[in-house]
């Protein structure tokens, strides 16, 4: 299980090495974690929790905004992206979607990236890391976004130019960032997001509820059984 791109050269492996995968074992888990990150960073749950434990009930600095009526841009509309979009609709958000290969049956309003960047109050990443998507959120992308955007990333750390995001957070162009993935894992001490304001990081845990782990193990076991029996 790798975080980078070009994990397996399928063409090189063809006819020589069997390749098995474990797809879609945690789409709800990841989508739910993305919303948890958004709620946490928006309503300052992490800060409020620590403050209350110190018997401090001040609301200073804890102001967020209503998700209802806001526009969320969902980049990547596979299973996870579509589930996250449905969750956002449940909060009364307007959903814009971008995908290199739009799904006409997804019930989503697809736009190009410049329009999504320009209109979204929240941007959530749900796409694979490839040479094409590497650092898709960079200085140029941030410049296209309206001021005050929140970025959520539960996909792959390499989708984001972390130095660019830190600079945008420091300037106030970005309101906040909440990520479950970083460019190098485990995270290194020099990662720009560690010292970025209004940024929370979780340790690549979105996929990992009990049910998801069981589905993953069941599929791995089935893959091994199929391999031993010579089945695809």
Detailed description of the structure:
This protein is α/β, with parallel strands linked by helices and 232 residues long. It has eight helices and seven strands, in the order αααβαββαβαβαββα. Mean pLDDT is 95; it is low at 1-5. The chain has a seven-stranded parallel beta sheet with strand order 3-2-1-4-5-6-7, with helices on both faces. It has helices at 10-13, 27-43, 45-53, 79-90, 113-119, 139-144, 162-171, 210-228; strands spanning 71-75, 94-98, 109-110, 122-125, 149-153, 174-179, 199-201.
Helix content: 25-40%
| Count of distinct strands | 7
Q: Between the first and last Cα atoms, what is the distance in angstroms?
A: 19 Å
Mean pLDDT: 95
What low-confidence regions span 5 or more consecutive residues with pLDDT below 50? 1-5
Largest sheet: 7 strands, parallel
Q: Can you list the strand order of the major beta sheet?
A: 3-2-1-4-5-6-7
Principal-axes geometry comes out as globular
Structural class: alpha/beta
Report the total helices.
8
Give me the Rg, rounded.
Answer: 19 Å
User: What percentage of the residues does DSSP assign to strands (E)?
Assistant: 5-15%
């Amino acid at each position: 299980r790798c975080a980078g791109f070009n994990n397996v050269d399928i063409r090189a492996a063809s006819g020589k090495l069997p390749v098995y995968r474990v797809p879609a074992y945690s789409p709800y888990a990841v989508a739910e974690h993305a919303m948890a990150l958004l709620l946490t960073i928006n309503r300052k749950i992490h800060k409020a929790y620590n403050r209350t434990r110190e018997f401090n009930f001040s609301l200073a600095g804890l102001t967020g905004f209503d998700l209802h009526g806001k526009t969320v841009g969902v980049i990547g509309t596979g299973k996870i992206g579509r589930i996250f979009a449905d969750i956002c609709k449940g909060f009364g958000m307007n959903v814009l979607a971008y995908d290199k290969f739009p799904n006409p049956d997804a019930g989503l309003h697809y736009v190009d990236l410049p329009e999504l960047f320009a209109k979204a109050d929240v941007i959530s990443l749900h796409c694979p890391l490839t040479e094409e998507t590497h650092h898709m959120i960079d200085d140029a992308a941030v410049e296209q976004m309206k001021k005050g955007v929140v970025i959520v990333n539960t996909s792959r750390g390499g989708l984001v130019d972390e130095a660019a995001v830190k600079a945008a957070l420091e300037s106030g162009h970005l309101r906040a960032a909440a990520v479950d993935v970083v460019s190098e894992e485990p995270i290194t001490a020099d990662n720009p997001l560690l010292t970025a304001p209004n940024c929370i990081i979780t340790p690549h845990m979105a996929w990992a509820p009990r049910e998801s782990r069981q589905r993953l193990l069941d599929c791995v076991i089935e893959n091994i059984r199929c391999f031993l029996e010579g089945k695809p």
